[in-house]
Each structure stands twice: as C-alpha cells, then as structure tokens.
Amino acid sequence: MDVDLHPPDDYSHRFFIWHEWIQAHGPLSAENAFEYFTTSMFYDKQSNNQVLRMQTMHTGLPPANEAEELKRFTGIEFALVHAEPPSLFIIHKRERLSPDEVRPLAVYFILNNRIYQSPDVYTLISNRLLTSLHSLQKSLDTLRTHRPAYTPRTGFVWPIAEPPATDAAASKKRAAAEGEPAAAAEEPRDLPGERSLAASASDSKRQQNTMLLFNAMRTTAVHAHESFQLPAAASEEAVPETPATATAGRSSVTPAPVPRGATPKGPSNAPTPQEPPAKGPPGGGKKKKKRTATLPPLAP
Fold it and tell me: How many C-beta atoms lie closer than 10 Å to residue 76's C-beta?
C-alpha cells in the first residue's frame, strides 16, 4: 500500500494544465496568465485577490490597478512578479503586513502552460543529500561484495591485474557475424592461447603476492635488526699490557751488577709475572745428583 507522506496542502509533486482554457483564450500573456492561475488548485479562494474580485463582480469592470488596490488589505495575496510570454511566468504567494511590507510564502511558475509549485530550499537540499547518500551506499555495497580476503600481513590488498587480450574473442565475434564456416575449425586452435593467457595471469598474480610477502619479510627483518642490536663487546686486545718494569722485582733478562767477591750468577730464567712458568711433563724434572763426601788428606 502506497502512503503519501506529503502534507495535504503540499502540491510540490503535482502540476496543473487545462488545454480547453488555452484553446478558448489563446496563448498565455502577461494579461491573462494570472486568470489562468486562478483556475488551478494552487489558488487560495480566501486570498485578498478573491475578495477584491468579489467586490468588483457586480460592476462588470475589473480593477484598474489591482496591485495598488491590494495595498489596502492585509493578509494572503498573489502577485505576478515575472513574465516571459508565452512560456514562463512566476507568481508569488505572500503575506501583506503593511502597505509597504510583504513576506513571501511560496513561489509558483507556469512553464509551457503547466503550473508547478517551486520547492523550497530545505526540500531541495534534503533531496540532493538523500540522492548523494543513496549513491554512496550503493557504491559501498558493491565494494563490500567484491572485497578481497584479509591477511594479517598485508591486510586488504586489491589485486590490480592487466585486462586479458580480447583479440581471440573479437575474431570469433567477427567470424560469427560474417557467417564464416571456418570459425568452428579454428576454435580448438585458440584453446592453447587461452590457456597460456590464463596461466600468465595466474603467474603474474602469484608473482605479485610473492613480492608483497618478500617486502613484508624484509621490512620486518630491518625493523628487528634496528630494534634489538646489542653494543659491541670490548675487545680483549684493547686492554693495555702492564709494562715489565712496573713490578717490584727486576724481571729483565739483563743481568744485574755483581758485587765484589761474589760469584756471578747466570741470567735469570724466572718468567715474567704476566707469563706463568710452563709446566713440563710429569716425571720430566731435573735428576738429583748424588752427593759424595770427600775427606781431606792426612798430614804427614
């Protein structure tokens, strides 16, 4: 069941035309356009224009200047404000507050003998917004139905594939239009080409996905290397060696001066404090010499 949501006095979705009146009175002009408007449902029978017509009905003569006569009234009135005969006329419905002050209420126009009510700014903007939102909703629904699968690494990636070659299809259509019998014989020959095209499209798609995965892995590796790199350990070779002369005793291989009456000793083979003495193999030490006692010769 269709429900009309327009108010009872809203005729913005309707128009008025009376072909018989046009044929009887001729084409519209600035003098009879308002008379034609008074026959439509847009005209208010309680307006000041109708009251003025009722006052001059019995005289048989229309008012000489209806616009000046309407200034004596206050309330709803109609006025023809623009005329481009015979196709366009604009009529205002307004409320007169004083002889010099009026407030517009609605606008009507006659276009090609049809009378329309002009929409207000609110209705015009709301209709344009509803149309735009409807188009946007339709576009989003179409994108949602063709949305690619989500992957945690790449997210939603729209594959961009080159359009396949349509030379074979165009040749088939041309042959069918010309009615050549050789089209059926050429059909099996086109199968390898179509398979190769499908295989190349799948290979290009696989290569594209592989490149995306490779770029993601390389970015992850660089990020991990920059985030978790440890400072280099200090090299043992950087430790300064203690000079041999810093020890308390003399560890140089140069022999010390020998005092008088003392038996010179051989060079010291004692290792430096930095180098511990090397141990020989077990049982490989110096052999102990046997001591023999010698008696002095007896005196004669």
Answer: 16
